[in-house]
Amino acid sequence: MTWIELGNPTPHTAPQHYTPINWQVGEAHYLPIPEQLIKAPFGEVISARRTRRSFGPISANDLGALLWASCRVEREGHHELGFSLTLRPVPSAGAIHPIHVIANGPADANWWLYNPSEHRLEQLVEVDPALADVRSMLENIVPPRDATILLFAAEPGKTFAKYAEACSLLWRDAGVLIGHLSLVAEALGLSFCPLGVTGDQWVKKLNQQGHLAGVGMALVGSMD
Ligand SMILES: Cc1cc2nc3c(=O)[nH]c(=O)nc-3n(C[C@H](O)[C@H](O)[C@H](O)COP(=O)(O)O)c2cc1C
Q: What is the CB neighbour count within 10 angstroms for residue 41?
């Protein structure tokens, strides 16, 4: 076994400035805002939560509710780092939220970036053809069937703008996000399965400048 030391994060004495990725996006689809907050009692949700591995298609309402209850921007803070700090349902080190959620539905050739300020999906354009193989490559891990694939793409420069030795913060942010999504999915009656693969080989292809790192993947769908 090799345990890789990730260091101990410490804030820089003077925060650095980071210019976020300028995503090339095409059409945008606003997701429905849930009409009511999740009513399921929290105790029942945590007792019932299980990883589920069979997936029907997810509706726009359910995908909207999942992302709304997990990732949407509720409040913006200062921009001293070169981008806004934000408060969202899920916590993040330094309120930086460096992880992008990128989705691909069944029978859809496109990959969609969740815009958490606008609560909409934005089509990624000029995506490397290698991403067309993701769904078939997952067959040997957890067959996706009609699942929507979620790719978690970290933008490490954001967290490194505030902290030295920030790697572990990004991995912990990924774990918090995936755990939060798993509970919200359960509360919404959805199947959700985290995947051990980082997705890095595909995420790297989404930014030629090397500003992204894959920090996990998950499958989500309706319960069959
Ligand atoms: C980081 C992480 C990676 C996982 N990777 C996989 C995976 O690749 N395939 C899979 O079938 N389940 C995966 N799981 C789900 C676990 O197998 C599951 O959480 C575990 O069996 C306990 O079951 P429960 O989630 O129903 O409590 C993963 C879970 C986590 C938290």
A: 10
Q: For 44-64, what is each residue's pLDDT tens digit? A: 999 999 999 999 999 999 999
Q: Please state whether the predicted TM-score (pTM) of the whole model is above 0.85.
A: yes
| Pocket of ligand 1 contains residue 196 by CB under 6 Å | yes
Residue nearest to atom 21 of ligand 1 (CA): 51
Mutate to test the pocket of ligand 1, among 186, 193, 215, 220 (most ligand atoms within 8 A of CB): 193
Probe target for ligand 1 pocket from 195, 220, 223, with the most ligand atoms within 8 Å of CB: 195
Do 113 and 183 contact (CB within 8 A), yes or no?
no
CA 218 – ligand 1 centroid, Å: 10
- Return the pLDDT at 8: 98
Per-residue pLDDT reduced to its tens digit, 103-151: 999 999 999 999 999 999 999 999 999 999 999 999 999 999 999 999 9
Q: Mean per-residue pLDDT for 182-197?
A: 98
Residue in 166, 161, 156, 155 with CA at minimum distance from that of residue 10 = 166
How many angstroms is it from 222 CA to the middle of ligand 1? 18
Q: What are the phi and psi torsion angles at 152 (to 5°)?
A: -100, 110
Q: Show the beta-strand stretches assigned E in 31-170.
A: 55-56, 75-76, 86-87, 99-104, 112-115, 120-124, 148-154, 163-164
- Domains of the chain: residue spans and CATH: 38-223 (3.40.109.10)
**152 closest CA partner among 119, 130, 174:** 174
Ligand 1, atom 27: closest residue by C-alpha: 50
